[in-house]
Specification:
The chain is mainly α. It has 2 domains: about 190 residues, no CATH class; about 180 residues, no CATH class. Helices cover about 85% and strands about 0% of the residues. Helix 1 crosses helix 7. The N and C termini lie far apart (about 45 Å).
Length: about 400
């Protein structure tokens, strides 16, 4: 729904700007929450029956996140002109978007904290309700702002909508535990921050560096080709995100817990191959259908103005099949907390993608970007196969 609205109201050029802001916000949101999200879920689940430890943990994490969020907000507000030029270039004046983001960021950081606490307490249904209601509110805000302000409204809705999740999250969490009543500076325990550091490092490596590299690549496209071409790549990326949810959801909900509890290489091998024999063929079949339906998908989700995106489907789908094949191996990093290996592999992959995209764009235009992604995913898969060869074979 939001994709169709963006296509109608902002067009390819606006889509490129939206993509830049989304990438920037993705990195910023991870920094503002210190990458603690998965760690919060884990520790709350483990210590929820120990009220004193739970109080210490909640106080420590909340105070840490609030301090970081407020510092980031100050940087956004007082340097709004700088961020505008960095993210949107010199041809657009959207300083106010970053001032709005500075006010919204603390609310977003706290909402992520609240949802993670609720998730850790095992209230999955309420977490689903929070996200569903939050998405509905976000959609309504997007429609109103885009109807009134077009591209500026789209950008504004992106920074405002996540903050509104706080009010929904607070309502549900407050019925389970009086979070704000148990937060006290005196119970701050730095030991919890140390325990969460490995989760933080892995999240920062992937969720901060990844979007920043995508932002740099999109700016290269704008400067080398034009802003419409950048919008077409953003459109292809959005389509990819939709069908990749199938794989990522199954991996997170089903395979990650199994990998976390697997004992020995044989058990891990069985899990890997159950994915390759059961899930991957279904995904390949699905993306094959998507390829032959690409014209219909573009017209359905976007407008005829975006038909040029069809030339990007082949390499994007090829790359995503390779990515789906590597994801199960990549989740082993999280399952076994292989922090250093994960960070090195992520940085190598991102650097390779950046340099390949720069070179191949010069040779093949916008198609070179999706070629670079496919080649990068192939190399990344090879690296993981070699690294986890004992568990695979």
């Amino acid at each position: 729904m939001t994709s169709k609205l963006l296509a109608v109201f902002v067009g390819p050029s606006g889509m490129a700007l939206v993509g830049n802001l989304r990438n920037f916000m993705s990195s910023l949101e991870t920094v503002s929450t210190l990458g603690f999200q998965n760690g919060i879920v884990k520790y709350v689940a483990e210590i929820q029956k120990d009220k004193l430890q739970l109080q210490k943990f909640i106080s420590t994490v909340f105070i840490s996140l609030l301090i970081v969020a407020l510092l980031l907000s100050g940087m956004l507000y007082f340097f709004a002109v700088f961020w505008n030029h960095k993210i949107f270039g010199n041809d657009f004046e959207y300083d106010f978007v970053f001032k709005a983001l500075s006010l919204a960021l603390p609310w977003y950081a706290v909402s992520v904290f609240l949802v993670s606490v609720l998730n850790g307490l095992g209230n999955f249904k309420k977490v689903i309700w929070i996200n569903s209601i939050g998405n509905t509110i976000g959609l309504l805000v997007s429609i109103i702002l885009m109807l009134k302000y077009k591209t500026f409204g789209a950008l504004l809705s992106i920074v405002i909508s996540p903050a509104l999740l706080f009010f929904v999250a607070f309502y549900f969490v407050n019925r389970e535990i009086a979070v704000f009543k148990i937060i006290k500076i005196a119970t701050f325990d730095f030991g919890f921050i140390k325990n969460l550091s490995s989760y933080s490092l892995m999240a920062l490596a992937s969720s901060v560096m990844g979007p920043l590299v995508f932002l740099m690549v999109r700016n290269n496209i704008i400067q080398t080709l034009d802003i419409n071409q950048a919008g077409f790549w953003e459109t292809m990326t959005r389509i990819s995100t939709y069908y990749m949810l199938f794989v990522s959801t199954i991996l997170t909900v089903y395979f990650l817990p199994k990998l976390s509890t697997a004992k020995g290489n044989q058990e891990t091998k069985n899990i890997f191959w159950s994915y390759y024999k059961g899930i991957l063929p279904v995904f390949v079949f699905g993306v094959t259908i998507i390829y032959f339906s690409r014209f219909f998908i573009i017209k359905l989700l976007f407008t005829k103005e975006f038909l040029a995106v069809e030339s990007l489907f082949f390499w994007q789908l090829m790359g995503d099949v390779l990515k789906a094949a590597s994801l199960i191996l990549g989740y082993q990093f999280f399952a076994k907390r292989l922090t250093a290996a994960f960070i090195i592999s992520e940085l190598v992959s991102l650097a390779l993608f950046y340099f390949l995209s720069d070179y191949l764009m010069g040779c093949y235009g916008i198609q070179g970007i999706v070629m670079a992604q496919a080649l990068d995913n192939f190399v990344y898969l090879l690296i993981l196969v070699v690294y986890f060869r004992k568990s695979l074979f």
